[in-house]
Amino acid sequence: MHKLNPNYEFIIPSLPGYGFSQAAQVSGMNPCQMAVVVQKLMTQSLHFDKFFVQGGDWGSVIAHYLAFISPNEVLGTHINMPQVRTPIWAIPYVYFFHWEDGKRSGLLPLGQFPGKMLNLWPYLFQQATRPNSVGIGMQDSPVATAAWILDKFYSWTDPQSDISKGDLITNLMFYWLTGSQTTAATLYKEFMWSETSAQNIKFLAAQRFAPSVSISDFPFELFSTPEVVVRAHYKHIISYRKEDKGGHFAALEYPETLAKHVHEMVELQFTNS
Q1: pLDDT in tens for each of the 273 residues of the chain?
Q2: Which residues of 139-168 are buried (b: 16+ CB within 10 A; e: fewer)?
Q3: Is the CB of residue 148 less than 8 Å from the CB of residue 138?
Q4: Residues 238, 213: contact at Cβ < 8 Å?
Q5: If DSSP codes are grouped into helix, strand and coil, which group holds residue 77?
Q6: 170: buried, middle or exposed (CB in 10 Å: 19+, 13-18, 0-12)?
Q7: Is the dihedral of CA 205, 209, 212, 216 positive or negative?
Q8: 268-272: which pairs have CB atoms within 8 A and are 24 or more residues apart?
Q9: Which is it for strands 74-79 and 237-242: parallel, antiparallel or unpaired?
Q10: Are 81 and 221 in contact (CB under 8 A)?
């Protein structure tokens, strides 16, 4: 294998219904179908024979789908939001024998856990059940768009991170200028209630059989999952990087750290090839 070239070509697609990407005209555009769209973009439109994938939030789900449906094209996968929760039956064992500092409150309904769930679930259920209600309101008002989205940056980030106002405004403008507030919110409904939602549930349960994956663990992510649980779920982890700072929007909060992890993943994949 030739020496790794540190220069990468980044392809950063807007998901269907987000930003400058057209929304689906029929129902069923869930993460599984989005992975198919991205696969066709990479292989048929851009003619890439091989590529790596990286994702957080919805991107972490879509990245795994891509690895499944394109095993010959995807060289490696990196995620910074593991889609795994601690099973109820495992909580006592993990809590008493394999806890990590700062992780206990993410396991049991103690400490900050109830507050985190109360903070998260209303947003999730609103977009999963009535995306038009919140979406149309945002499309009518830039203030509503800012209030809804910036609240997530406030609640889901490391309090010590310093995301610039310019970056926040740029993020808002992707929604406001394209009028994609409603179509973006619809992804939650498609994931939870579409005819193919069963595929999503089965996929999340079967990720332990996924291809090799690299994981970045940021302490202020939405869900706190101990490393022992993550390793029990993903059977082919080639690297696991734990950080002491950073949250859900790691790419904006600490881009150098996330970039370093992705670069390490690429190097490891080439080394193990």
Answers
A1: 334 455 778 899 999 999 999 998 888 898 889 999 999 999 999 999 999 999 999 999 899 888 888 888 999 999 999 877 666 666 666 556 555 555 554 554 444 555 666 667 788 889 999 999 999 999 999 999 999 999 999 989 999 998 999 999 999 999 999 999 999 999 999 988 765 555 555 555 555 545 688 999 998 888 767 787 788 778 789 999 999 999 999 999 999 999 999 999 988 877 776
A2: beeeebbbebbeeebeebbbeebeeeeeee
A3: yes
A4: yes
A5: strand
A6: exposed
A7: positive
A8: 268/76, 268/214, 268/238, 268/239, 269/52, 269/75, 269/76, 269/212, 269/238, 270/1, 270/4, 272/238
A9: unpaired
A10: yes
* pTM (2 d.p.): 0.84
Token pair, residue 163, equals 């995301």
Type of residue at 264: E
What are the structure tokens assigned to 112, written together? 């900050």
| Long-range Cβ pairs for the range 198-204 (8 Å, 24+) | 199/30, 199/32, 200/30, 200/31, 200/32, 200/61, 203/32, 203/61, 203/64, 203/65, 203/68, 204/61, 204/83
Looking at residue 247, its amino acid is G
Task: Please enumerate in sequence order all residues whose Cβ is within 8 A of that of 249, keeping only pairs 6 or more positions apart, or say none.
Answer: 56, 153, 156, 157, 163
* Residues taking part in catalysis: 57, 188, 248
